[in-house]
Structures are given as structure tokens and as C-alpha cells.
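Researcher: Quick one. two chains, 613 residues in total.
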Amino acid sequence: MSSQHFGKADVGPIQVRGEVLAVRRSGDYYVLVFAAPGIAELTAPGSFVAIAVGGQPTAMLLRRCFSIHRVDTTGALGGTVEIVVDAHGPGTKWLVERAQGDAIDIIAPLGRPFSLPKEPVPCVLVGGGYGAAPLFMLADQLRERGCRVDMILGAATESRLFGVVDGRRRTSSLSITTDDGSLGTKGRVTDVLDGILDEHGGQVIYACGPMGMLAGLARVAALRGIVSQCAVEEAMACGVGVCMTCVLPVVGTDGVTRMTRSCTDGPVFFGDQVRWDEIGTVPVDCLGAPASTTGVAR
Amino acid sequence: MSSVVDMRAQLATVTLPSPVLTASGCAAAGRELDRFFDVTAIGAVVTKSIMAQPRSGRATPRMAETPAGMLNSIGLQGPGIEEFIRKDLRWLRERGARTVVSIAGGSVNEFAELADRLRHEEGIAAIEVNISCPNVESRGQVFACDARAAGSVIQAVRRHTSALTPIFAKLSPDVTDIADIASACVNAGADGLSMINTTLGMVIDTDTMRPALAGIMGGLSGPAIRPMAVRCVWQVRQTLPDIPILGMGGIASGLDALQFILAGANAVSVGTATFNDPSAPMRVHNELAAALAARGFRSLADAVSHAHREEGALL
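Model:
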């Protein structure tokens, strides 16, 4: 196996020509394992990978981005990286059809990861569908710091859940919600969140999943005066910060709203920084917004 | 096999150690790509078009993947000229990169003011004038699609820029006769021409049954437009034998770059390819050098316009 990497290897991100080690199914999803030396030791939970798809030369120019599920620096294969893939489009379908030994071009770790609390505090981790992917690595690191970790996993239906067994093993409690009631509580993660926060005194919510879910959790956190850290999933083209397509309206520490790159200044944002209801628009008070008398600019 | 090819490129009065530059809008101001390759090792960083004031850009979705291409409708998001000078230009200068500053405006005056503001700044090798902007004083018609409007902008920028700083007009392919627009720009004082910018395109999302982009239409780029771009370089080179040309449009490999050089480009920009491969500019340089060596060229300069040579001419 040959792999090479380019870039400033002490801090990342780096670009690695790696190799597919395994592709396995997990409910509706696929878990892919790559040999990609150099990435694992730089990874923190919440960071993501950007993978080129379609082979070379490709007709699918844009990289596909995935949260890092797990990394391993040990073992005879050198560093490995695992991701969870929902194969719904041509790029992800190509990816899950890879075989052991196939070459893979992967850039990682990207983005701002979750930040860990300085003091041991109770934390609640919330994952929506395959968004749960980065939460298990996070749970391990939080527990190492003496934090109590409770987890909520939610999805439309049982097959759209990810990591139930992983979650049970790593947390003080695991709650499951499904929209159709096929497993766990019928309903949404926000239906059980308050109860769990009340019971264990959670001080930080860490979340990854659909925008609507993150918005709901951020609202709960704000009402309770606790911290929420939300890993967003915006459509990305490059993943490295040059294309300006993955932006969303975010309030800065100076109180000014800017269209902010989720690949570079995210994907983890504090819940109270993101203007959730205005995603897909340019708020009129955004820095550099077009002067308009018709309300929100489009 | 190969002796080392002299890869120096001449763009107007600027000599670059490499004929590969980044394309405006695809490299920000160099910091991000510098993680993947040495931005001082390529010809120059062409920066994202800067405007006078901070600009939010458009609502998302701002992009759509297309066959061997993509649509973008970013809307010229940027921090405005003051922050650009303070942060981005300074970083490039301290880093030791050669920089081509791309400027954009909504009126002739705005372009002139930007040129004025940059006039005494150090570390600028050339100015690329992004005339693919709507002219707010002419019902939003794009400057680059009208010879007179394009000429007016170039004339104003030329007047407000030091004679020592070459200015390049960035041309749009969405015109009837690109050589016509090119000539107008040269007559107005352009020292060179950058071509091509994106071409206007659309995707209808067949799930939502609405335009995929929030901005409805967007600029199409990537390998899908390369034949159009090569054709434009060829046509302009035929019409204007001596004008410096910075060629671009879907370059993803050394052989792609070679097409542009042979068609008449003195240097090339690599843009959309960086989204697929952030090390693309350096890779294209290395592949181009190997391709030139394999064909017996001693220098890049010898290959410029080589496809225009007479039938039966020796290499």
C-alpha cells in the first residue's frame, strides 16, 4: 500500500492518497474505513473529511464531506479514519461501491471541532440519524475528563438510527426517539431532552444532525441558559474554505452577523451564534447585505 | 530524457517563475491553499474579486454540481477593499507570494476608485479587472458583454493605475464576438486579457421542481467549459497576435494547460479544479513541465501559440 500526504502535517488539514480498507452496512447507512496515515493523530471530534469521488478524471468535481466517526492511530495499517455514509446521490453511491484496496483521495481533518469543557460537567449528546457519527469519539473524550455523558439518538424510523450499540456502551444513559415509534419513544429528540436535562443537570448540549433539530436544541439551551454546540451540515463544494458556498448567517463575538463558512469557522457553532430561522436567506442586517426595502434579501 | 524546461512565463511586463496562477474566486487570498502547496512556488495568486464595500453575497444554495462542472452564484462576497488591504494583501506580501488583485465594481467610478485605492499598495504584480459585473448605471447589463462599456471601465482603471502595473481585462464568453470585446479592451489600455470567466447557466432541481440556486442563474465553470475557453483563446490570439493572454476555463491537468498555451495563452489560471484537488495548481505546473519536456520544448515560451504555426513548420 502506498499513500502520500501533502501539506503542513503538524497541524492539518492534510491531503492524503489513501486506501479503502472496508465498507460495511449499518442499518440504512454504510461505514467506510480508510487507511489514511497522518490524519488520525490530528483529529478531534466534530472535524470532518472531504473526499474526491468518481475516480480520475471525474465528472463529479465537488468533494463530498462527512463527519469523522472514528480514528485509530494504532495497528499494523498505520492510521485509519472511519466515516458514516448515507448513499443517496451519485457521489455517495460511488463511494459505497468502493472495494478493499481502492485508492481514495481524502482531505482531513477539516473544520472547527467540538470544544471540551474545562471542568467536568454533565453533558448531553444528541444525534439525528447519521449525524450521530462524531458523538462516540466525543463521548469517550468527555468521559476521560470526568464528564457524565447522556445520549439521545433520534431518527425518522429505526433503520435510520446510527450507533445504538455504540451509544449504550459509552454513556450513562441512552434515549432513543423515532418519528414513527418503531424504536424507543415516539417523537423527536426535543421531546425527551428537557427530561434528561432536568434529571442529570446537563450543562452542555453537543449535537449533530439536521438543521431543524439543531435549531430546536439551540432554543432549549437558550431557554435554560446552558451551552449548546451544534455541528451543522451545509452543502459543501471544496471543504477547505475557498469556494464560499457553505455559508450561513452567524452572529460574531462583535455582535455583527456575517455569512460564515461552515467548513472553516464551523461546522461546530455555538447554538446561540447561528440565526437558524434565517438560513437560506441573507438577513437585512448582515454585514454587506444589499440595501433593500423589501425585507430579507434573496 | 528531458532536460529541465524553462517554465518562466511573461505576462505583459511581469515575469513569473511559473505559468500557473490561481483563478479569481477559487483561491480566496491564498491562505487556505497554502496548506496544500507552496503558494510562492506558482506564478501568482489571483485574489477573489474585491469591491469597495463589504459584501454579503447571495443566499444559499450558492452552488450546484453539473456534469464535469459546477454552477456558482456566490454574489461576490467579500470584506471590502480596506480589510482586504489590511489583512489579505498584507498576508500575501509577508508570505512572499506574487499577487494579482482582482477588482469588481458596479459602475465605472467604482472601478476607478478601487484602482486609486490600490495604487500605492506594495506587492501587487498586476490588476485583473472583473468586468463580468452588472453595470448598475445601465439596467444591470454586464460590462463585459458590451465593447463600449468594457472599454470605459478599462480606460478608467488604466488612468488610475500606475503605468508600472499591468492591467488585465477578464473577458466573459457570453458574447457574440469575444475578439471584438478583446480589441475594445486593448484599445482602451488593457495590457493583457484574462479569459474566460464563467458562462451563465441554470439547474432546475427535479425534486423541488424549482431552480436549484437561490440566485436562479449562476456561472458555469469546470472541464465542461474548457472547449469554449480554448476556442476563445484561439480566436483572440488570431485577432491580436501580440497581446498577453492569461487563459483559463476547466484546466485540471498539465495537458489541459498545454492546450491553452498552444492556443495562444502566455500563462494559465487554475480555478474550479482546486475544489476537487487543492494541490491542483502545483500539480498542473509539474504535469505541464513534463508534457513540454516530452515534446522537446526547451521553454514554455516556445510553446505559446504553437498550434497556430503553419502547416509543415518544424517544431
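The mean pLDDT of chain B is 96.
Researcher: Thanks, that's what I needed.
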